[in-house]
Amino acid sequence: MATGGLEIEQLIMLLARLPGLGPRSARRAVLHLIKKKEGLMIPLSAALDRAVAAVTVCEVCGNVDTRSPCGICADPRRNESGLLIVVEDVADLWALERAGVGAVKYHVLGGVLSPLDGVGPDDLAIDSLVHRAGEFSEIVLAVNATVEGQTTAHYITDRLQGLGVRVTRLAHGVPVGGELDYLDEGTLSQALKARTAI
Amino acid sequence: MATGGLEIEQLIMLLARLPGLGPRSARRAVLHLIKKKEGLMIPLSAALDRAVAAVTVCEVCGNVDTRSPCGICADPRRNESGLLIVVEDVADLWALERAGVGAVKYHVLGGVLSPLDGVGPDDLAIDSLVHRAGEFSEIVLAVNATVEGQTTAHYITDRLQGLGVRVTRLAHGVPVGGELDYLDEGTLSQALKARTAI
Predict the structure, then answer these.
(1) Residue B7 to residue A44, Cβ atoms within 8 A
(2) Chosen CATH of B6-54 out of 1.10.8.420, 3.40.50.2300, 3.40.50.300, 3.90.180.10
(3) CA nearest to A44 within chain B
(4) Over the stretch A29-47, which tens digit does the pLDDT of each residue have?
(5) Residue ranges per domain, chain B?
(6) What's the complex ipTM?
(7) pLDDT digits (tens, 9 = 90+) for B96-133
(8) What residue in A sits closest to B48 (Cα-Cα)?
(9) Higher pLDDT pick, A186 / B153
(10) Which of A82, A126, B121, B186 is most exposed by smallest CB count within 10 Å?
(11) C-beta contacts of A189-197 below 8 A and 24+ residues apart
(12) What pLDDT shows up at residue B1?
């Protein structure tokens, strides 16, 4: 292939491995980068170098940050609520932070139990969750509403029993702005069961 | 925002400026990079550094490569056909190379004439095309079949008149594997006019 030199081919190949990008969009991205060399390619290269050097995983909660304990774990104001939110992934933690759920702390499991994929309790940050659970008054299991997520939630609930901490899960219901017509029956019946006074 | 440190935020912001990526997919990409730090993030960072240092634009044809003249312009076997293919963009050049169109040479215009966007002949590599056109026996105007593309093709055809070089364009017709039912009338009538013996 004579489409640019080896350096360009390698860059395309690596970018194509990012989620949401394929070979075609990676080529477009690289051409865009080359066109905007001063304004985008060089800053991106520098930002990536800095991130490689700085990024670390928080040893307390599993969040991704430039220090460990991370900014959230190190923030004393976040102790007051006594709320620990357990999530599958750092992306879920970021989503909850964007939603502005308040001065809470998090625990990132790093996945869900999935016997078919060979993911057992030892592959997730469950021991460390049990270890720190006593510091909180309530543990919210904010795992995805999938079969694996619910299995993981049940397993964690069992492990947390006897520690004297309240264990809850997120409410099921109609998404804000959602149309009833497009919702599945499970969500609708849960939303009806959990109806609240206006 | 407490979603990771400043380094991570900057990386997300820059990645979100790539075509095909937005803030959401850039966040996913950065999390994926951090998870695969050794296998993907560090190699990508190194590849980007190398590309920044190596990439240049060919002064003859406008292709992107790690040397100038580029690998295509420097290849003596590509002189034999006497064919010069004029494209709007480097992406089109790459697409033709992937299609294996043979031992041809290229000329990248860097866009199309577009008075509304303030793009005139001087903003495109048209003078340099006229300058090198005499070296070839045929110039193929492989611009997009858009109004701007066709306007540009007409302008270039006018400029090349009197140089004794044959000027052609790509054939219109049914895409290979395409279904007639989904084709627009313009393409269908062109395909019928240009019908060939089986």
Answers:
(1) no
(2) 1.10.8.420
(3) B14
(4) 999 999 999 999 999 999 9
(5) 6-54, 77-169
(6) 0.79
(7) 988 888 889 999 999 999 989 999 999 999 999 999 99
(8) A45
(9) B153
(10) B186
(11) none
(12) 46
